[in-house]
């Protein structure tokens, strides 16, 4: 069992669980308060029941490989393991221990599913699963936005925007950008495949623009520049160095122009210097972080079930939210500077490995990590339970883990090639020798 490829049934179950972690359940529109930032207590209880639809299959998939779990643990990056342990341990100093314990267990199961994907599927297979799941989500977005506009669209300060099957327009925008990134990672050889990518890309791009979410648009522009730079770097290192010097001068010039005309640019984009009020939120949260700077308030404890420590921030702002709208601040609130330090060490290691793979031809890890980093400037996606982005981060972190590659190299008595992430070498326990 442990040395065989996942069968069709297992792949279908994996796809269903992956779909659930996208967080776009159509029936969630019936559960959430569509005009409020907070979710009612009884609604949360119903949602927790729905998440069992992801947890139970995850445990089933992992337990099928129980003989390999020991070797799997040694493949987890050390600092990733410490982060999950710290999140669970924070129950001891949390102001709402029942919330922290429940959500840290959800984080553990989310991380466990990412570990399963990394061990039983190679890079291309994970991308194929993402294509199928996100394609289905893209179709549902169009159906809900056009067929049921009272649910598929939302009103905000600047007018109407599309949200599809998601709770907010920004979530649909960032998910459609992820879909576009995934679509670019394959070499499409047939006319049918290229036609699919073209139409799917156009439809997802349309949804991205109709979401009227500026963050994914800005990230998309930056990713296009990165992709272009990577192609230059691979073609000829001599020209790449010259190009980087010229790019640095050009970026400096453009940066000065942006700073001089920042007010006009933000007005054109429908934004202001406050980043839609985030600057005030961040200032208040920084004050709260200083009170528990070392270990934080406990995983997800700051916001609690009914506010918890966040009540002071709510009173100062005059309105309620359940997120810091910044992944790094959210991590500090949950696990303090200790948690932030552990994540940054892990992040730097993964980025370093992804740069090497990008140079050798596999740009998916680097592009996703850039997307993930920029997204966390205005959203909170780091170490988030029940979240697709954390699942993908875990997959990449495990697949690029040098210790994991060394272990399997010793077992096979051969060195992995530079293209091991692409599937040329399959050191996973679920792959046949």
Short description:
The protein has 433 residues and is an all-alpha fold. The chain has helices spanning 8-22, 28-31, 41-63, 69-75, 78-89, 97-120, 123-147, 149-152, 169-183, 191-210, 214-235, 237-260, 262-268, 278-291, 311-317, 327-359, 364-378, 388-399, 402-412; strands at residues 153-156, 159-162.
Salient structural properties:
2 strands, globular, mainly alpha, two-stranded antiparallel ribbon, 433 residues
Which sequence of strands runs across the widest sheet? 1-2
Compute the number of helices.
19
Average pLDDT:
80
Main beta sheet: strand number and arrangement? 2 strands, antiparallel
Please report the total strand number as a whole number: 2
Q: What best-fitting shape do the alpha-carbon axes yield?
A: globular
Alpha-carbon distance between the two ends: 13 Å
Radius of gyration computed on alpha carbons? 22 Å
Portion of residues in beta strands equals under 5%
Helical proportion, percent range? 55-70%
Element pattern in H and E: HHHHHHHHEEHHHHHHHHHHH
